[in-house]
Amino acid sequence: MSGDKIFVVHSHFAKNHHFDLRLEMNGTLKSWAVPKEPPKTAGVKRLAIQVEDHPKSYATFEGVIPEGSYGAGKVKIWDHGKYSLIEKTPNKILVDFQGKKLKGQYELIHAKLGGNEKGWLFFKK
Q: Domain limits at 20?
């Protein structure tokens, strides 16, 4: 299966270090903030908080977002590659990543943890 869309995971050294998962969808990058390193093995679940979409051009960004700006801090690409969309519903996204670190099937489940509409679970299948 070959990927037809891009993904990127940024390591973001903002107020709190976290990772930003970004999936190309509908001409934009759908984005989630993941407080801990994305899982590379099955059985490990991570919280993922959906944030605003980013322009597709942001997929190659590395650098420093200046103080006083939204997301201020250093941004580095942690992983990137192509992915294939296997299934997408309003509450589930199943993909197959072909990255250097993230490989295989991953799922995002809209869990609404603690009543938070932006709360998702992210894990390797």
A: 5-124
